[in-house]
Specification:
Blueprint lengths: L2 E8 L6 E8 L24 H26 L1 H11 L5 H34 L3 H21 L4 H17 L2 H13 L1
Helix pairs in contact: 1-3, 1-5, 2-3, 3-4, 4-5
Keywords: Membrane, Transmembrane, Transmembrane helix
Length: 186
């Protein structure tokens, strides 16, 4: 039989009263017992080589993106020339300030992209299918951007090639089996 017990504890000289409610149940009271706490003794599945290679290729391609951002920074005159061509009325100070902002944005974008690729690649390595899908969408967007903007730096093509290879590796049969097994475990 389940019963409730209320203890009233008052502190002398205090206006506060504390009520403690406890409940106890016995196996004979007809109430269902709490479900057992789920514990998994299964060891985590080790990612196959295709997932590990895909993870590192995503990281390397993101680092290549940072290198591309640094190359843009080192070729600041090219940025100034492009800004001057689009708006010839700007003064030299305005051109340099605009170029500085453009370079800072390019570097910031490269760092944010690196961190996102790191996060999603780590989730892919942990067997999360949603991360594989997000990475696939990002790679498609990256490739479309390269085609439409006709990349001028060779590193852009190298980075995109690494991303495509990483994505293909993420969909190989061993990778599919790993992600399916991970999904079944969770």
């Amino acid at each position: 039989m389940a019963f409730f017990r209320v203890d009233r504890t008052g502190l002398k000289g205090s206006l506060k009263t504390v009520y403690i409610v406890t409940m106890s149940a016995s196996p004979d009271d007809g109430l269902p017992s709490a479900p057992p706490i789920a514990t998994s003794t299964e060891p985590k599945a080790k990612p196959p080589g295709s997932i590990t290679a895909s993870f590192w290729l995503y990281i390397i391609s993101a680092l290549v993106g940072i290198v591309g951002g640094i190359l843009v920074f080192s070729d600041k005159q090219r940025v100034i020339d492009a800004v001057h061509k689009s708006n010839p009325k700007l003064t030299d100070t305005q051109l340099h300030n605009t170029a500085n902002v453009a370079v800072a944005i390019a570097l910031g974008f490269s760092v944010v992209a690196f961190l996102l690729y790191l996060l999603f690649a780590a989730k892919l390595r942990a067997g999360r299918n949603w991360a594989r899908i997000v990475l696939t969408v990002l790679v498609i967007l990256n490739a479309l951007s390269l085609v439409t903007n006709k990349g001028t730096l060779g590193v852009e093509y190298v980075g995109t090639a690494l991303l495509v290879i990483a994505t293909v590796l993420a969909y190989l049969p061993a990778s599919n089996a790993y992600i399916k097994a991970t999904r079944a475990r969770t």
